[in-house]
Design goal:
47% of the residues lie in helices and 14% in strands. It is of the alpha/beta class and 348 residues long. It is elongated.
């Protein structure tokens, strides 16, 4: 393989697309070329980078995070849609040319990819596969050092990546079966790792743990677990513990509020209530962090950007924020995580 493949998934709402974009910027350092792919048809990459909707073609998107040498590489983007991929497939294997366009006019492409979702997934992943295995012999084509796929959510990721299993009852032989076999060889190789993005909340963490088991059950390599939008504590560990035990001193709080000119009727009670909510939220983060680290997988955290400490705020991240998150990913070493499997199918 000429490139490493990073597949980024996560429960909906955890910011997996944001993490995928930040990871692409992190990987594109010191002159490295990275391709950021999306396969869900949402044009999320275009919105994050504030550019026009992406075509079905590799498009220069941004300069990567500068490396130790102060040089940034390049990030290209590719919006993969099943209909365009099927037209390309027909042209490549069956020489249909303009006849393929006629199929599109009559709705045959949409029909084919709707009744056979396994075929649709082979077409989507096949385009990413081609970018990964590309090398200097592909005349005129850009070769990449890494490919990042913004993949479907964890609830569908195993089905999406396990294209051989999905095609079992549809295609025993032929070009599309051969394509599926090659894609699966890549997905199960040392070149690939599947990163799971979560929030430090009960439902996303449980879905992440379930996703790890499902991926391993079909031999797909798990890379790192990335907790996104982690809020920092506004209280010291001592004050957090006192808050949890209900030991905050209202007289002291009233005096301190008065000292800074913030004394007001009901202010102390409101402040104590907010501190209690904050302590409970930090306690929940701590308990969910423990569950994730118990998996033994590489683990990283990304901070919540913005003024609020609520991880469910869901505020959009601008380009400056993406670069900031990319710096955190470099610091935590996520871009170096390999997802190879040992002989027993467990994580190496």
């Amino acid at each position: 393989m000429s490139a490493d493949l990073h597949i980024v998934t996560g429960k909906g709402g955890t910011g997996k697309s944001t993490v995928a974009a930040a990871l692409a910027l992190a990987l594109a350092s010191s002159g490295r070329r990275v391709l950021l792919c999306e396969v869900e048809g949402r044009q999320g990459i275009a919105r994050m980078f504030d550019v026009d909707p992406l075509p079905y073609a590799e498009t220069r998107l941004a300069t990567g995070l500068p490396g130790d040498d102060g040089v940034g590489g390049s990030v290209n983007a590719l919006h993969v849609d099943a209909e365009s991929a099927l037209l390309e497939y027909f042209a490549m294997y069956y020489r249909l040319g303009k006849a393929g366009k006629a199929l599109e006019k009559f709705g045959v492409l949409e029909f084919a990819t709707t009744i056979a979702p396994g075929v649709r997934d082979v077409l989507l992943t096949g385009k990413v596969y081609e970018a990964v295995i590309r090398n200097a012999r592909n005349k005129g084509a850009i070769t990449y050092d890494a490919v990042v796929m913004d993949a479907p959510p964890t609830g569908r990721i195993t089905q999406f990546l396990n294209v051989n299993g999905e095609l079992a009852g549809l295609a025993k032989v032929g070009p599309i079966r051969s394509q599926a076999d090659k894609v699966m060889e890549l997905f199960r190789s040392d070149a690939t790792r599947v990163h799971l993005v979560t929030l430090l909340e009960e439902m996303p963490v449980q879905e992440t743990i379930d996703g790890i088991a499902e991926l391993r059950a079909v031999g797909l390599p798990v890379g790192a677990l990335i907790a996104n939008r982690v809020g920092a504590s506004a209280l010291s560990p001592t004050d957090l513990e006192r808050t949890r035990r209900g030991e905050l001193d209202p007289i002291r709080l009233a005096a301190e509020l008065d000292d800074v000119g913030l004394a007001a009727p009901g202010a102390v009670e409101a402040l104590v209530a907010l501190a209690g909510e904050h302590a409970a939220r930090i306690g929940l983060q701590d308990s969910q962090r423990e569950l994730l680290t118990e998996t033994g997988l590489p683990y990283a955290e990304l901070p919540l950007l913005g003024a609020t400490d609520r991880p469910d705020a869901g505020a959009a991240v601008d380009l400056a924020g993406l670069y900031e998150l990319a710096g955190h990913l470099v610091a935590t070493g996520v871009s170096e995580v390999k997802g190879s499997l040992d002989a027993t199918g467990g994580q190496a």
